[in-house]
Amino acid sequence: MKFKSQIFYQLLLLSSALLAAPYAKAQGKLDEYIRQGLASNESIRQQNFVLEKNIYALKEAKSMFLPDVTFSTNYTKADGGRTIDFPTGDLLNGAYATLNRLTGSNSFPQLQNQRILLNPDNFYDAKLRTSLPILNAELIYNKRIKQQQVDLQKTEVLLYKRELVKEIKTAYYSYLKATSATSIYESSLRLVEEGLRINTKLYNNSKVNRTVVLRSENEVSRINASLITATKTAESARYYFNFLLNRPLTDSVQLDNITELPSQDQSLGNNVGGREELSKLRIAKDINGNLTGLAKSYLIPKVGTYLDLGSQAFDWQVNRQSKYYFLGVSLEWNLFSFGKHSNRIKQTLSDQQALASQTDYVQQQLLTELKVRQSGMQSAIAQYNAAQSQLKTSQTYYNDELKLYKQGMAIYIELLDAQNQWIDAQLNANIALYDTWIANTAIERANASFTIQQ
């Protein structure tokens, strides 16, 4: 009677752990782990560095519309080379001679013809140049493209985050499934060990034959081996989960209490418009449109202005005469380039058609993925319902066999068979429960329904 009451007590403990658990609460611990993973993942950090680079590139593009101030100077020392002959003596000496005769003096000397060196000798030119674009379509399209590249990289970061969330949730549920299986095997091991102890005592008192003891020993070995396997599986699942969170692999993992199926609200519908893959293609299409505009920008003239403030003179002199300003307006208009720009435009139009075709294909591909995930969810729910029915049936079967065993109307092998069926039913119910959550996670990924904090 002691053996039978202990078996029944273990039965009550095990069934209460699986069937009498409270309704599943909000998965606060998992949400916290997701936040940790998004903050510490190295791949996301790398993508954030790329995003930072694109933001700086956008700032650079905006700065091109602002004035540009540069300082430049040059100094030349020259001798030889081309010259200009200026007949100073031929032009003035006759007049100077007449003036000397009239004045009776030598006040007007005779001059030599001059040979002026074209290359400036001992000459400097120092200036500050301020330039400002007034009309430049290339700069306008360049800024738009840089802005869209920032948006594209933000979408890429979000894509990495969404994939990481899926991996974290899947790893978390896999770890929960493994730890729950470990708990089931631990309870089962205590149950069969107690059965071995009682059967050994009964055998020593010649109440049962040797076969009962051998079968009990067999069950202890089998359950113990299964427990070791389940423990190692749980350890591996914990290592991978901590790896995703960029934590030490052996860190402990706090678990949420999950006993119910996930909500089915987000698993309905066929909307995949929120997928980052489609957002990237839409942004790429916009970028391509601006690339087309950039290729056509040669039709618009470029207008700019500049102002030079400086000083230039010989022998490093700086005075009122050496200082100067120089204001100018420039106009550049490409009138003909032998088809270079038209061919470039045709390239961007071809890219636009390729992007449109790719968008249709990817959208259909993502919709197919969602349908497959939804079918997987329906299958997982069906498996869960069947496992729950089997769990209830096997528990009833075990209870009936236990009553018969108490009355001496069933042999131990029959009780053991009922017990094994009940243990297997618990394991199947555990697997089916967490498989529904894993399938739900796959749907969240397929329709991008999980809200990611920016």
TrEMBL record:
It is found in: Cell outer membrane. Keywords: Cell outer membrane, Membrane, Signal, Transmembrane, Transmembrane beta strand, Transport. Gene3D superfamilies: Outer membrane efflux proteins (OEP). InterPro entries: OMP_efflux (IPR003423), TolC-like (IPR051906). Its main location: membrane. It holds the Pfam family OEP. Coiled coil: none annotated. It comes from the Bacteria. Residues 1-20 form the signal peptide. Belongs to the outer membrane factor (OMF) (TC 1.B.17) family. This is Transporter. It comes from Mucilaginibacter dorajii. The lineage of its organism: Bacteria, Pseudomonadati, Bacteroidota, Sphingobacteriia, Sphingobacteriales.
